[in-house]
Amino acid sequence: RELGLKIMIDTEGPPEWVALLAGRYRDVLARVEIENEVLIPGIKPADPERWGALYRAAKDSAPNAQAFLTAVGNNGMFERLRRLGVPFDRVGLHAYKHGPQWKEAFASHMLGVADYASTLGKQVTLGEFNWKELTRLSPEARVPEVAAVYESVFGPRAIPEIVIFQLQESLSFNPAISGTYTRHYEPLTLDRRPKPEAAELLRLIRQYTAPDAAARVLRVAVPEATLVVGPATVVPFTVTNTSGRALTVALRVLAFEGVTSRLLTPSQVALRAGEAHRGRAELRLTSGAKPGTYHHFVRADVQGGAGATPASPAPSVGWGVASNPGAPTFDRAPVLADRVHYPQGEDVVTKLDWVRRPLAVVYGESASVLEVETAYQLMNTLQSATGRPVRLSSVADLPDSLRRGGTVLVLGTMGTSSLVRDGKAEASVPPKGHGVIALRVPPMRDGEEARPSGQWLMLYGADKEGAQAAAVDLILRYWKHAKDATTPLSGMERGSALGNRVKVTVPDPP
Known about the structure:
The chain has helices at 15-24, 47-61, 76-84, 105-119, 139-154, 175-178, 196-208, 214-217, 369-386, 400-405, 418-422, 464-478, and strands at residues 7-11, 29-34, 66-71, 91-98, 124-132, 161-162, 218-221, 225-226, 233-241, 247-255, 259-263, 268-271, 276-285, 292-302, 316-324, 340-341, 359-363, 390-394, 407-413, 435-440, 455-461. By secondary structure, the protein is of the alpha/beta class. It has a 6-stranded parallel beta sheet. The model is unreliable at 305-312 and 504-510 (pLDDT under 50).
């Protein structure tokens, strides 16, 4: 509400449930997707009556919202809905491809569904799409691939509404059950810090959005800031009028959860066509704020009068990232003491430089899916706990400057990672399913004149389950203290994530 955003609800349940949700959020509700992807497998005899009831429940509670069902381009399902008398306001589309060889197919997919929807006099909502299997690419390699995927979707200008599904990384997927390294296409990390490809996505949104859309008329740029405890932090921002006409702009600053903001420069400015206003905001951490990533916003609204358009009520919002760097807070004792060995003592984790050196998590050149997925969990939670960017890549994509001078968490086995072989902590191999956590100085390479100054924290085992156990024990020692942790559950660690029976939907906690 503060940022002027609208929401889409994707849910299932009885009509009373849909009515409750739609009624509760009717003032910000734009779309209701009935039973996610429900048209993909087909239509069963009892479905039409249920879908009709859910549609009416949504519309009665939120008359201004549009309700619809979703397929994957199998448009015959919508023809069947029409014959069965099931109402829908839009044609819903979800589209995924697996592998880079398919990304060019998105354009024809978009055109085909848009053409069909036009025959009905309806528009399309692309509620989910992505090219999977970007996961193993380095950050530098992902950016142009993400740009090509989105360009293939945006380029035909056939789809009027695209929802960035799965905006933020989460911890909801158990890597022992659903780890297929196809995900991680979200543009934001767990702490909502934008990934490198997020800047490319923002550029494309501005390129392809309507000419009079707020994000295109007013460009609001806010650089990243580093917060300090006690004194205020002054953050500059820039608002640029790209509309081609003079505008009067009202400015507000907003901040939530742990940081407050105050506008230091005028709250209303007149901007000629092409002119930029440089303002300043003051940020302060609230009492007791933990290390982590914080967020604040600069909202720009076009005022009525000269330059105002029918689209003017929509704000343009600049998103600011503000980090409060710090070392993670660790529990004194391991959580998986019988599964993980600390040859240098359990407090070795407090001897790393978490604040001054750049941080990285590295998995092996031939890492298993489980190791890659565990590395993602480690990177996301560590970034949240430190408030600092954490680079994630394979050993092959680790910059030499980081290898030599960074604080690097090395995850893997002797067989999957050359860095584990280089920096192995013990001569003896731990038992299967058991992990080791040890601190090492990066070894010198042939031809190097100076010894590396960085630190490697080795998280390894004889097998992938041992490497996972080491990483999980480390994560569980700091995660419940981190800023972005939700419910700090414990006692469930020996479920299917660590060697008990594994079923797709039924984990086996003790």
